[in-house]
């Protein structure tokens, strides 16, 4: 056919007889072609006439394309109207606003214009050695992309009618016209010739749909698409790199501007550029729910691309591709119109794999859970494209399918949940990511084991989630656990330093793992106990675990017992006494440590007192320790005074410490239980005046109970003046209760530098009261 038409001086295109105002349509096209600038008309009747003309069967037929593709001069006749082919194309270019928005014409007409307008530029054709003529229009893949929606009586002709226009050697691919070859076999040959002979292709005898399975990679994405020339038969595509970090050895970003022929399926912004393994050219595809639709099967890129470091050849960029990480399921559907494709969200109407797919494809889909597998593969690609919301939606469906098929704790289900957690992490939805990772780790420990690679991988993912949020403590915990699980029982020695670090910095979960994995190598030394004592968050739990698991091996030294008494709760001390009581000596240092125990001082002290009976004397040192204990010191002192008053060694210093550091309840108990041994000395009164919180109440108690012994000295006044919280109330109490009857026996030092800065009003009031109270006995020193 190409040989015949290539010899013709002129090819006449017969569009049919006059109908639907076609004469006016042809004449309007001729007028538009003669205008110097774009011709614009909005007449509704005229628009209907032109659209009706363009919808005539000739424009949709496949075989007629070869006629105009071979011609060097085209005349178009419709009824009595006759117009030059080039003029026809020029007129339509000016009137494209009539049809460019119509889905059935917007890509159909430009592809036909491309062939007609080129007629006047074609040379004489040469016949090859085989006697065949090649019009050499463009590669077969591009011809298929432009014209596969054209109509043919036999499906075979959708391929054979384009062979004469192809610049490829199609006979080598087994595509020479042969109508005895079944359609599905011919379609498979075509796909493999365009992509790769080893690719998996499924076709049907009564469908124009191919299902392609292949490994591949995403090269880029269509960031913009626009008309390439005034004729509308080419499109300019701006491509930007995507997913290159895993697919290309060339990691730098790149961009390119490609010009392609107007395809049967319109390209849209957001379409993906992919390269299938073994394919010579990239394809343009579009994401659907559980597969990808082929928009263009073979795109010829421009020779150069722009990278961050300059211009490089496209061929050089492709050579860097060494990895094809993704599994693609592509549907190349010739049957759907562009409009149908645009709104298609599911491919179920195109492929019924259970009943119509070839057996080898059907088996593969069954093994991989069919739709769940396809959704999984699409989700992985969307993840790499940073389309996280789309990936999440598909993964949720995958998880439901896996739970239904295998159960909630199956490895397949857990893999899917783990991937969803990674998506949440990348979306910075930290709480959701953490919850899912923790869930997966716990289930994998139960099902696969704590040291399984999948479990360790999930733990690593959780650790990186903590790190991304700045939770370094949690990250370090997981890292040390991963280390212990990975090492197993290897020959690497676990040092005391390592055990100390774990006891000091981590919770009982890490210590438990250490004991389970390397327990035979671990000694519970005094340093380990001290380290657990320094563990402010989990010290009690760690020490309880050590005593329960290795209580017989804990080195019992006074230092270890002191640390336990000072830093842990009563349960730890009780367990220690139960397991190793015969070796534990309750010394003054141990009791002092218990008095200093912030959280559980009273409870631990009670255990020790019950254990020792009256053997340990309650010294001033012990009281000082309780005094410094701002949380449970009062309870400790009350316990000692109530339970062990005979063992409390009463000294002036002890009474002063109580007067200065505790409230009136403690002082009252002391006076009631030990009153006969207590003297209210100047030091005790000074201490009461210095009591920050309860100075007034303690001083009032001393005045009420032992008023005759209370002496107001210079140092008492100084202590009250230096008491920034309750000093004012103490002074007021002294003035009110004692007045002029109180003997001030020493000079009051009035130097401002000897006491803290007070309010001037308060200072003036104090001085006035002192002078008014005992002016005769008060000697003011001047410096």
First-last Cα distance = 128 Å
Provide the residue-averaged pLDDT. Answer: 84
Number of helices: 37
Please tally the β strands and state the result.
13
Radius of gyration: 47 Å
Shape assignment: elongated
Strand order of the largest sheet: 5-8-9-10-13
Classify the beta-strand content into a percent band.
5-15%
Summarize the amount of helix as a percent range. Answer: 40-55%
Report the sheet with the most strands, covering strand number, pairing sense and barrel closure.
5 strands, mixed, barrel
Low-confidence stretches: 338-346, 349-361, 740-762, 774-783
Given helix and strand content, the structural type is alpha+beta
Pfam families: DUF7104, HET, TPR_10, TPR_12
Domain Heterokaryon incompatibility: 1-67
Protein name: Heterokaryon incompatibility domain-containing protein
InterPro entries: DUF7104, HET, HetReg/Transcr_Mod, TPR-like_helical_dom_sf
Short description:
With 783 residues, the chain is α+β, with helices and mostly antiparallel strands. The protein contains 37 helices and 13 strands.
């Amino acid at each position: 056919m190409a040989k015949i038409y290539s010899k013709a001086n002129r090819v006449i295109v017969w569009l049919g007889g006059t109908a639907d105002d076609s004469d006016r349509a042809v004449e309007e096209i001729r007028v538009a072609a003669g205008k110097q600038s774009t011709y614009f008309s909005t007449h509704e009747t005229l628009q209907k006439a032109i659209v009706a003309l363009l919808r005539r069967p000739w424009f949709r037929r496949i075989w007629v394309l070869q006629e105009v593709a071979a011609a060097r001069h085209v005349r178009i006749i419709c009824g009595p109207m006759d117009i030059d082919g080039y003029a026809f194309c020029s007129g339509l270019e000016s009137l494209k606003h009539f049809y460019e928005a119509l889905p059935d014409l917007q890509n159909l007409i430009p592809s036909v214009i491309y062939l007609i307008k080129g007629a006047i530029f074609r040379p004489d054709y040469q016949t090859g050695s085989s006697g065949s003529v090649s019009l050499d229009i463009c590669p077969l893949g591009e011809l298929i992309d432009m014209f596969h929606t054209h109509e043919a009586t036999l499906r075979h002709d959708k391929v054979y009618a384009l062979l004469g226009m192809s610049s490829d050697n199609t006979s080598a691919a087994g595509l020479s016209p042969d109508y005895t070859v079944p359609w599905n076999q011919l379609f498979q040959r075509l796909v493999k010739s365009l992509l790769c002979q080893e690719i998996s292709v499924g076709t049907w005898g009564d469908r124009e749909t191919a299902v392609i399975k292949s490994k591949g990679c995403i090269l880029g994405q269509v960031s913009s698409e626009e008309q390439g020339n005034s004729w509308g038969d080419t499109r300019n595509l701006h491509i930007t790199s995507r997913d290159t970090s895993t697919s290309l050895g060339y990691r730098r970003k790149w961009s390119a501007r490609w010009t392609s022929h107007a395809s049967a399926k319109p390209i849209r912004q957001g379409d993906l550029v992919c390269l299938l393994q073994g394919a010579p050219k990239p394809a343009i595809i579009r994401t659907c729910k559980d597969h990808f639709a082929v928009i263009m099967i073979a795109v010829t890129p421009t020779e150069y691309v722009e990278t961050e470091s300059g211009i490089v050849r496209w061929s050089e960029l492709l050579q860097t591709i060494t990895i094809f990480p993704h599994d693609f399921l592509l549907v190349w559907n010739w049957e759907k119109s562009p409009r149908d494709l645009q709104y298609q969200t599911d491919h179920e109407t195109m492929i019924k794999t259970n009943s119509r797919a070839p057996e080898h494809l059907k088996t593969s889909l069954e093994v991989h859970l069919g739709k769940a597998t396809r959704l999984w593969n699409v989700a992985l690609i969307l993840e790499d494209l940073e389309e996280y919301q789309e990936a999440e939606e598909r993964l949720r469906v995958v998880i439901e399918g896996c739970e239904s098929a295998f159960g909630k704790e199956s490895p397949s289900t857990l893999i899917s949940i783990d991937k969803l957690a990674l998506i949440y992490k990348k979306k910075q939805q930290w709480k959701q990511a953490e919850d899912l990772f923790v869930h997966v780790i716990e289930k994998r420990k139960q099902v696969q084991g704590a040291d399984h690679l999948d479990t360790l991988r999930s733990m690593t993912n959780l650790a990186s989630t903590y790190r991304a949020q700045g939770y370094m403590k949690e990250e370090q915990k997981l890292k040390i656990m991963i280390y212990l699980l990975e090492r197993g029982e290897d020959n690497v020695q676990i040092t005391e330093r390592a055990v100390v670090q774990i006891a000091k910095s981590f919770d009982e979960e890490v210590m438990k793992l250490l004991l389970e994995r390397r327990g035979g190598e671990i000694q519970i030394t005094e340093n380990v106990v001290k380290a657990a004592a320094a563990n402010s968050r989990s010290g009690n739990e760690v020490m309880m675990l050590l005593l329960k698991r290795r209580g017989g091996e804990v080195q019992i030294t006074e230092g270890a017992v002191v640390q336990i008494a000072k830093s842990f709760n009563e349960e730890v001390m009780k367990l220690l006494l139960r397991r190793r009581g015969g070796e534990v000596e309750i010394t003054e240092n141990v009791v002092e440590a218990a008095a200093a125990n912030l959280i559980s001082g009273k409870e631990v002290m009670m255990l020790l007192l019950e254990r020792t009976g009256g053997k340990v004397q309650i010294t001033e040192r012990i009281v000082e320790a309780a005094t410094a204990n701002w949380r449970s010191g009062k309870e400790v002192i009350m316990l000692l005074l109530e339970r062990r008053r005979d063992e409390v060694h009463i000294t002036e210093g002890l009474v002063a410490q109580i007067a200065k550091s505790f409230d009136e309840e403690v002082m009252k108990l002391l006076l009631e239980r030990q009153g006969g041994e207590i003297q209210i000395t100047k030091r005790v009164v000074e201490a009461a005046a210095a009591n920050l919180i309860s100075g007034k109440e303690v001083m009032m108690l001393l005045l009420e109970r032992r008023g005759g012994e209370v002496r107001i000295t210079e140092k008492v006044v100084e202590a009250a003046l230096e008491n920034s919280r309750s000093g004012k109330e103490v002074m007021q109490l002294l003035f009110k209760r004692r007045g002029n009857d109180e003997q001030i026996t020493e000079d009051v030092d009035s130097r401002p530098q000897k006491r803290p800065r007070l309010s001037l009003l308060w200072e003036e009031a104090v001085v006035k009261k002192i002078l008014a109270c005992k002016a005769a006995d008060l000697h003011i020193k001047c410096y």
